[in-house]
Amino acid sequence: MARTLIGGLVGGIIIFVLGYIFWATPLGEIPYSKATDAQNAAVQAALAQNLSQSGTGAYIIPAHQSAGGAVLYAKGPIATVHFNTSGFSPDDMSMILPGFIVALVTGLLMAFGLAAVGGGGRSFASVGRLVVCFSLAFTCWEFLGSPIFNHYGWGYWIYVFVAESVSLIAAGLVIARWFLPRGYAAAEPRTPETTGYDAPIAPVTEG
Fold first, then answer.
1. Which of 22, 68, 162, 181 is most buried when burial is the number of CB atoms within 10 A of its CB?
2. Distance (Å, rounded) from C-alpha 2 to C-alpha 179?
3. What pairs with residue 60 in β-bridges?
4. What distance lies between CA 136 and its chain's CA centroid?
5. Cβ distance 172 to 135 under 8 Å?
6. In terms of Cα–Cα distance, which of 188, 133, 205, 194 is closest to 165?
7. Cα–Cα distance list, 66 to 63, 70, 74, 82 (Å)
8. CA atoms within 13 A on the CB side of 196
9. What is the pLDDT of residues 137-168, one digit of tens each?
10. Burial of 114 (0-12, 13-18, 19+ CB in 10 A)
């Protein structure tokens, strides 16, 4: 229990550190398209004039529930806007603590999940494949599905897919290698010495 708990905390720290590297360093500028200062000011003014009364939220622009909106949506351009009525400094660090807590919770969930399914004498390679496959299954659907279903550009979502896949896989492999309960991810083969049986059970045959 304590070993798994420590592993979850370590995994959470790995997720947090890699998230910082991918998003809080100059690397974080890679997935974003750029507009000029004049264009930014014009779009910001339009947002303030048209969305501030509706409040913070996620908007499909133009909304297509009405007949007129559907025509505009089909005509384009379109956008999904994650809108915040309040500004904050680009160097704002208020999200560090809650983000760190979420990372730790994520690491703990991963550790206890791996402890639950990583038993039975499974080797590190076996548990490692589980980590890689489930991490990629989640990130593939969650991030590569978005540009398909919402007609977004691919650049941002490929970057997110890579960043989140690397973070989850790195954390999971560290947990699987060093922090699962002893014997859960051991690399030793299943032999009479490691299983406690004097000899392997022979298959039952007819005749």
1. 22
2. 9
3. 80
4. 9
5. yes
6. 133
7. 8, 6, 12, 21
8. 1
9. 999 999 999 999 999 999 999 999 999 999 99
10. buried
| Chain segment 59-118, per-residue pLDDT in tens | 999 999 999 999 999 999 999 999 999 888 988 899 999 999 999 999 999 999 999 987
Q: Biggest alpha carbon distance in the chain? A: 86
Average pLDDT value for the chain: 89
- Look at residues 91, 108, 93 and name the one whose alpha carbon lies nearest to residue 13: 108
Cβ–Cβ < 8 Å for 21, 161: no
What's this model's pTM, rounded to 2 decimal places?
A: 0.85
Closest CA to 176 of 57, 48, 54, 7: 7
Cα dihedral 51, 55, 59, 63 sign:
negative
The alpha carbon torsion through 72, 74, 80, 86 (nearest 10 deg) reads -10
CA proximity to 191, closest of 123, 124, 128:
123
Asked if 154 contacts 162 with a C-beta cutoff of 8 angstroms, the reply is no
Alpha-carbon span 112 to 149, nearest angstrom: 33
**Percentages (nearest 5) of helix, strand, coil residues in the chain:** 60, 5, 35
